[in-house]
TrEMBL record:
Taxonomy of the source species: Bacteria, Pseudomonadati, Pseudomonadota, Alphaproteobacteria, Hyphomicrobiales
Domain named EAL: residues: 1-251
Residues of the full protein shown: 433 to 683 of 691
Protein name: EAL domain-containing protein
Source organism (scientific name): Maritalea mediterranea
């Protein structure tokens, strides 16, 4: 199939792009890092959605190698950002299953020279539902290297709470569905968000809200002392060449 050929080329020639979406710190509402998001183009130059190509890459058994390429590309890009701008990278289960993840992260950091403390790895809770102990072990090894670990899409999985206390995550990212409701559901969603923030803080984790699309959401999350914000209102995923604006107005 076409998509398989695209993916095979992507992994062989590192023929794909990374886009980067800014993460804002609540305190000064300035960008403090970027999340890398993989972008793959078809023959016509149109983007194929990650929701479509990532499952195929996993089926093909190349997601582990592709994940390694993403780590290498991402850390190389982040090297050009002003410190302490951080890099967040999404991991997939295949990278844990291969048993190579820790070495891949080590290699990417060594090759790029990016300090481990500037790298944050995002995992979803579904990843911890299989091979829990084995995966937690790899996360522990990564943490020992100085890399931080975030739980992505928090609140959407089956047993968010079950894993939260089993591993010292540095950060929780509240799934964007909590911010996506209409005005009626908003008040209730706010209660839930506020509770997740309190829970995270009680476990000494930082909390990020995803899917921030309006100014009033920014104000509300500020009031709730949500540590970081991410969403289209603050910045859409963009290519490396367009990130400078996020630190240009710093001086
Ligand atoms: O921005 P967006 O449409 O790219 O992302 C859609 C989904 O694809 C998200 O769940 C995101 O976590 C996932 N995704 C995007 N880039 C990567 C990547 O580099 N690695 C992995 N494992 N998932 C990614
Ligand atoms: O699962 P993960 O959080 O890694 O997914 C990132 C995805 O979320 C990307 O597809 C990105 O484009 C999308 N995204 C980021 N911010 C927003 C937002 O404010 N609104 C919506 N609808 N999607 C967003
Ligand atoms: Mn993510
Ligand atoms: Na997410």
């Amino acid at each position: 199939r076409d998509l398989e050929a695209l993916l095979r080329r992507a992994v062989h020639n590192s023929d794909f792009e990374l886009y980067f979406q800014p993460l804002y710190s609540q305190q000064d509402l300035k960008a403090c890092g970027f999340e890398a998001l993989m972008r793959l183009r078809d023959q016509d130059g149109q983007f194929v959605p990650p929701e479509r190509f990532i499952p195929v890459a996993e089926e093909m058994g190349i997601m582990d190698e592709l994940g390694f390429q993403i780590l290498k590309k991402g850390t190389m890009a982040a090297l050009n950002w002003p410190a302490p701008m951080r890099l967040a990278i999404n991991l997939s289960a295949a990278q844990f299953e291969s048993g190579k993840l820790v070495q891949h992260v080590k290699d990417a950091l060594a090759e790029s020279g990016l300090p481990a403390k500037l790298l944050e790895l995002e995992i979803t809770e579904s990843l911890l539902m299989q091979n829990t102990q084995r995966n937690l072990k790899q996360l522990t090894a990564l943490k020992k290297m100085g890399v931080s670990i975030a739980m992505d899409d928090f609140g959407t999985g089956y047993s968010s709470l079950g894993y939260l206390w089993q591993f010292p995550f540095d950060k929780i990212k509240i799934d964007r569905s909590f911010l996506g409701g209409d005005e009626n559901s908003n008040a209730k969603a706010m209660q839930v968000i506020s509770t997740i923030i309190a829970l995270g803080h009680s476990l000494e984790m930082r909390v990020t809200a995803e899917g921030v699309e309006t100014e009033s959401q920014v104000a509300m999350l500020n009031k709730l002392k949500c540590d970081q914000l991410q969403g289209f209102y603050l910045g859409r995923p963009a290519p490396e060449s367009e990130l400078e604006k996020y630190w240009a107005d710093d001086a």
